[in-house]
């Protein structure tokens, strides 16, 4: 069974939505801070068990999958008919939304990865020599912001896919009109 534009749009939407949901859950499950426990040489941090790091990495994985499927869906030869990339990039609106989709995907990945990696570092380095160390966690709000940007990038990939479909239809209509004119001559 060949993929259609509807199948690709559904895949991009589903992957982007799952990335969004996982990111929001990761943000909501993240503790505000750890509990400092005084020891002889400083502080040992005790953090509550939470799935933030795992959910954050899963959110990034689904974002990457959504981005890859979104990118490939633009250039896939539907019904065995491929369109040169130059034809698609000739359309200014497509070019703008393609670049916005790429940028928002990169920014979403940054906003998801930065706090997740920071959180993982905080969780792995629990012993500190400073007796006044407060046992912080990653900055609050960044994972949630990355989750919303993940959803936005998914929507931009869908808009780019619709614009690519329009450009594809225009390209094939122009070629059909040209072929009909050459047959009539």
Automatic annotation (TrEMBL):
InterPro entries linked to this entry: DEAL/Modifying_wall_lignin1/2 (IPR009606), DESIGUAL (IPR052222)
Residues making up the signal peptide according to the UniProt record: 1-26
Transmembrane keyword on record: yes
Subcellular location(s) of the protein: Endomembrane system
Pfam families: DUF1218
Parts of the chain that traverse the membrane: 54-74, 94-117, 142-164
Name by which UniProt lists this protein: Transmembrane protein, putative
Organism: Medicago truncatula
Highest classification ranks of the organism: Eukaryota, Viridiplantae, Streptophyta, Embryophyta, Tracheophyta
């Amino acid at each position: 069974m060949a993929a259609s534009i509807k199948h690709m749009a559904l895949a991009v939407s589903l992957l982007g939505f799952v990335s969004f949901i996982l990111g929001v859950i990761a943000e909501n499950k993240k503790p505000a801070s750890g509990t400092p426990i005084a020891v002889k040489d400083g502080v040992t941090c005790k953090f509550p068990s939470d799935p933030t790091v795992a959910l954050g990495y899963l959110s990034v994985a689904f974002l990457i999958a959504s981005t890859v499927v979104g990118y490939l869906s633009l250039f896939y030869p539907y019904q065995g008919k491929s369109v040169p990339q130059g034809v698609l990039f000739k359309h200014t609106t497509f070019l703008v939304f393609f670049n916005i989709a790429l940028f928002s995907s990169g920014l979403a990945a940054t906003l998801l990865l930065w706090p997740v990696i920071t959180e993982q570092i905080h969780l792995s380095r629990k012993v500190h020599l400073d007796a006044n160390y407060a046992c912080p966690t990653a900055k609050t709000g960044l994972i949630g912001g990355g989750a919303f940007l993940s959803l936005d990038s998914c929507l931009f990939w869908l808009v780019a896919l619709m614009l690519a479909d329009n450009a594809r239809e225009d390209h094939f209509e122009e070629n059909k009109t040209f072929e009909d004119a050459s047959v009539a001559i």
